[in-house]
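fyi for ur records
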Amino acid sequence: MSAAKVSASEGRDTGTLGKLMVLLDRVTHADEPMRFTDILAVANQPRGTVHRQLSHLVEEGLLEIDTDGRYSPGLRLLDLASRSWARNEFRLIAEPHLKALQGLTGETVHLGVLRGTSIIYLDKFEGQQPVRMYSQIGNASPVYCTGVGKAALSILPTERVKALVADIVFHRFTANTHTPESLLAEIEEIRKQGHAFDREEHEVGIRCIAAPIWSENLSLVGGVSVTGPAYRLTVERLSEWAAPIQESAERIMEAMRIGLGPRR
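which gave:
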């Protein structure tokens, strides 16, 4: 599990539901199925409580347990995720603009929203020459080393950004991954430019340019990005798409104001 995801999970470890969600997060974001002893070691809860909570999650179909006693995500999560994705109004509003941007650039386009210290990908349109990368719909990526993440941070008030940065455990994914100090400095530049770059900060060989998207009350903050392989997308090439991607973000926000405005 990413450091950002761990921080977000532990931050809401309050009450019965919060504790259940922490366990669910631990198992669903693990790289491989977890045994009871593995979960117990990171749960920071009594053995009996963890056993009871895992049993509830299995009964509800949110987790599955195999014959070797290892826990993994349950099929009910797929059903819940597919329904949420299909009915997400923001994603539906953005979809035609994402397709247009993909058609213009020929590269992979992402739509993401800020959740805690992570970016959750809501949609993705593959480029004409798909490239293997971490991003998938529903995946969470650290906010500090992704184009969409940094674009989203640039919209928030400075004090809120500093508070979020203070909650992040920075992991150095590549030689270009930010430190807290360099991140805060770049956020100031992004605010002036209106767009952000990912210069191989999360994955070696992957670059992107992103523009922020936000609602007027900042209840929704995220971004749209164009992503591709570094050998094809130089920073100069990405810079040529600064205006188109910012225009796409503005069109999405205008459509949001119309489509998600107050209902009469």
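The chain has a mean pLDDT of 85. thats all i got for now
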